[in-house]
Structure formats: C-alpha cells, structure tokens
Automatic annotation (TrEMBL):
<feature type="domain" description="EamA">
    <location>
        <begin position="150"/>
        <end position="284"/>
    </location>
</feature>
<feature type="domain" description="EamA">
    <location>
        <begin position="1"/>
        <end position="136"/>
    </location>
</feature>
<dbReference type="InterPro" id="IPR037185">
    <property type="entry name" value="EmrE-like"/>
</dbReference>
<dbReference type="InterPro" id="IPR000620">
    <property type="entry name" value="EamA_dom"/>
</dbReference>
<keyword id="KW-0812">Transmembrane</keyword>
<keyword id="KW-0472">Membrane</keyword>
<keyword id="KW-1133">Transmembrane helix</keyword>
<dbReference type="Pfam" id="PF00892">
    <property type="entry name" value="EamA"/>
</dbReference>
<comment type="similarity">
    <text>Belongs to the EamA transporter family.</text>
</comment>
<feature type="transmembrane region" description="Helical">
    <location>
        <begin position="30"/>
        <end position="50"/>
    </location>
</feature>
<feature type="transmembrane region" description="Helical">
    <location>
        <begin position="183"/>
        <end position="201"/>
    </location>
</feature>
<protein>
    <submittedName>
        <fullName>EamA family transporter</fullName>
    </submittedName>
</protein>
<feature type="transmembrane region" description="Helical">
    <location>
        <begin position="240"/>
        <end position="262"/>
    </location>
</feature>
<feature type="transmembrane region" description="Helical">
    <location>
        <begin position="62"/>
        <end position="83"/>
    </location>
</feature>
<feature type="transmembrane region" description="Helical">
    <location>
        <begin position="151"/>
        <end position="171"/>
    </location>
</feature>
<feature type="transmembrane region" description="Helical">
    <location>
        <begin position="213"/>
        <end position="234"/>
    </location>
</feature>
<dbReference type="GO" id="GO:0016020">
    <property type="term" value="C:membrane"/>
</dbReference>
Length: 286
C-alpha cells in the first residue's frame, strides 16, 4: 500500500506546483506560502479528527516531537525557497532542481537511517542526477541573455531543505500515526511562514490579492494537504530511499500541465533528461 500512497503523493504534488504558480503570479511568494499553509493546516487537522488520532498526542515522546518540529522547520524553509523560485523562474527549470533532493535524501537515508544501498539504487541516483542536469540546461540563445539567476539559488535551497525534511520526518513519524505527524508539522510551517511575512513587512499586500489568485492559492493548499497525507503515510511504512524518488515523479504531472497551462515546452536535452529521471526512479521499484 505504501507504493500507492507514494504515487498519490506524486500526483497531488505535481498539481500543487501548477496551481501555486498560477496563485503567486501577482502575489508575494512569502505571503502566498503563508496563506496556503492555513489551508493545509485545516485540511490536515480535519483528517486527524476524522481518523480519531488526536488523543495520541499525549503519548508522543519528546524525541518524536523534536524531530517533527525540525522537519516542519525544514519544510517551511523549503517551501519559502521553492515558491520564490517558482515566482521568478521557469517552472520546467525550477521543478527538476527541487526534485534533485532525491539524490541527497537517498544518500542521507543510507548514512543516517542505515537503509541498504544496492547497484540498482546507485545506478538510479546517477540517472536522476544526469537527468536533472540536462533538464536545467538552457538553449544556447537563451543562455546569452542577461537574466535573473536568483531562482537557481532558491531552487537549490528548496532541494536541500526538502531532503532534510524527508529524513527528519521519517524519524519523527516512527511509532506515530502519519496523519497526526503531518498536522503537527504543519503548525510549525505555518508559524515559520507568517514570521517571514511580518519580518519582510508583506502582510499589507494580502488585501491586494485578486479573486483568481485566492482561488488558486486555496486549491494548491488542498492539493498540498493531499500530497502530504499520502507522502507521510508512505514514508511511515516504506523505505525513504524509494518513497522519496517515487514522490518526485510529480515532475511528470508538472511538466505536462506546464505545457498546457503556460505553454512551457521542453527542448531535446530536457526531454532526454526527463526520461532519465523517470527511468531512474522507476528502476527503484525492482
């Protein structure tokens, strides 16, 4: 079942990226992140009360709470970087870099969690790495243009924090219902996101958000909630070195919708890179 939940996470995550891109088009990325997190928080706690796991909070160990909080902080940092990168960069360039967190997560899973490394996993890491590199290469004529490259650094920050999130989250949800763990982490993300909003003085921009942006922000929050619930359910029972790569297959959904919605097309190198990422990911299932 954890494989099905992992693929469910990938589907919702792919939809999230497109909806969020639409929602932050005319909205500050930090404000958008903070507002989306409110939706995710409501969604995740609804699931907690529906499943009746709220009473387990009193039985949670200090270690579990600490790792869930650290995981939430990493998630918040990853989100802030990711949506800032989406706002100023090409979604077909930002997403592959964000998904490269797969490689770092697999390495950390081998080192910290003691998950075994096999020849197939090693080859998969190489394919995913090479595929990511090909996808972020620009066409020669575009490369000559003077363009803001800050999106690249934000995307890299998103990948690093995302990998830390997976490892810390894996430790934090051991012996705890994954739905409850997700809800607790969301509280941390919400606090962190709003601190950033007030520190940067962007809270006054909320009144300027148009109805269309509100709609997409809400929908992206719901999609994120669905992705998280599936992801941490899969992570609870499945190996992180396999669950995380499957989740990153959301890139297929993102690329497909980015072509339909934003008319962002892949060149030959990017297409080859995408194929390598998919092949590398799917090989982990065997």
């Amino acid at each position: 079942m954890w494989i099905l939940f992992a693929f469910g996470s990938a589907l919702f995550a792919g939809i999230t990226a497109i909806l969020a891109k639409c929602g932050i088009k005319n909205t500050d990325s930090n404000v958008a992140t903070a507002l989306r997190t409110i939706i995710v928080l409501i969604f995740s706690w609804m699931m907690v009360f529906i499943s009746g796991t709220q009473s387990i909070i009193l039985d949670m160990s200090v270690k579990t709470l600490v790792f869930l909080i650290l995981s939430g902080i990493s998630t918040g940092a990853s989100w802030l970087c990711y949506f800032k990168a989406l706002q100023i960069g090409d979604i077909n360039k930002v997403t592959p870099i964000d998904k490269s967190s797969t490689i770092l997560t697999m390495v950390l899973a081998f080192i910290i969690l003691g998950e075994g490394i096999t020849l197939i996993k090693f080859i998969a890491m190489i394919l995913i790495g090479m595929g990511t590199y090909l996808m972020i290469q620009k066409k020669e004529e575009v490369r000559r243009e003077t363009k803001n490259r800050m999106w690249l650094w934000y995307a890299l920050g998103s990948a690093i924090f995302a990998s830390l999130t997976s490892i810390l989250g894996k430790v934090g949800i051991e012996g705890v219902d994954s739905t409850l763990g997700t809800a607790i982490r969301t509280i941390v993300v919400l606090i962190m996101a709003w601190i950033v909003v007030f520190v940067t003085g962007k809270q006054n921009t909320i009144k300027d958000i148009d109805k269309r942006s509100w709609l997409f922000l809400v929908l992206s929050g719901v999609a994120t909630g669905g992705s998280w619930l599936c992801y941490y359910r899969a992570l609870q029972t499945g190996p992180a070195s396999i669950v995380v790569p499957i989740d990153k297959l959301s890139i297929l959904v993102t690329v497909a919708f980015s072509y339909i919605v934003f008319n962002e097309k892949l060149n030959k190198k990017s297409t080859i890179g995408l194929i390598m990422i998919v092949v590398g990911t799917l090989s982990l299932l065997f």
